[in-house]
């Protein structure tokens, strides 16, 4: 994945996938968010909420814009509050709506 090597082991039915482990994809654009979201929910994947999804194998993923980290750690509590309102209502994140809320 993106030039990095990952190893996954099949623990059998006594060790199913849970949201305790998730992979995160940080995206620069809405186009990237859309690409990964559609790819990972294809063939039986499931949308969850707030940028989370489960792929067809049950692996939990977070597909989020890189700008979110800056927005939700801003010292202006009102800006952070404005970002969370639309964010918590979304499944796939809409970067334009989040940025609009951030700007006020």
Polypeptide structure, described:
- The chain has a four-stranded mixed β-sheet with strand order 1-4-3-2.
- It is built from four helices and four strands.
- α3 runs antiparallel to α4 (95-103).
- With 104 residues, the chain is α+β, with helices and mostly antiparallel strands.
- The protein has one domain (22-103): 2,3-Dihydroxybiphenyl 1,2-Dioxygenase, domain 1.
- The chain has helices spanning 30-41, 67-72, 77-87, 95-103; strands spanning 22-27, 46-47, 52-54, 60-65.
Distance between the termini: 36 Å
Kindly report the CATH topology: 2,3-Dihydroxybiphenyl 1,2-Dioxygenase, domain 1
Tell me the number of helical segments per DSSP (H or I, 4 or more residues long): 4
Strand order of the largest sheet: 1-4-3-2
Write down how many β-strands occur, each being a DSSP E stretch of 2 or more residues.
Answer: 4
Unreliable residue runs:
none
Order of SSEs, N→C?
Answer: EHEEEHHH
**Average pLDDT reading:** 92
Structural domain count: 1
CATH level-four homologous superfamily name: 2,3-Dihydroxybiphenyl 1,2-Dioxygenase, domain 1
Q: What characteristic shape results from the CA principal axes? A: elongated
How would you classify the helix and strand content by structural class?
A: alpha+beta
Strand content: 15-25%
CATH class: Alpha Beta
Write the layout of secondary structure elements.
Blueprint: E1 22-27, H1 30-41, E2 46-47, E3 52-54, E4 60-65, H2 67-72, H3 77-87, H4 95-103
Parallel strand pairs: 1-4
Antiparallel strand pairs: 2-3, 3-4
């Amino acid at each position: 994945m993106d030039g990095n090597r990952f190893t996954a082991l099949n623990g059998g039915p006594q060790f199913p996938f849970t949201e305790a482990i998730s992979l995160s994809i940080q995206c620069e654009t809405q186009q990237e968010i859309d690409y990964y979201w559609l790819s990972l929910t294809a063939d039986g994947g499931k949308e969850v909420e707030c940028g989370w999804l489960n792929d067809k194998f049950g692996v939990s993923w977070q597909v989020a814009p890189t700008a979110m980290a800056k927005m939700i750690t801003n010292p202006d509590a009102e800006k952070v509050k404005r970002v969370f309102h639309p964010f918590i209502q979304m499944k796939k994140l809409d970067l334009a709506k989040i940025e609009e809320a951030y700007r006020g």
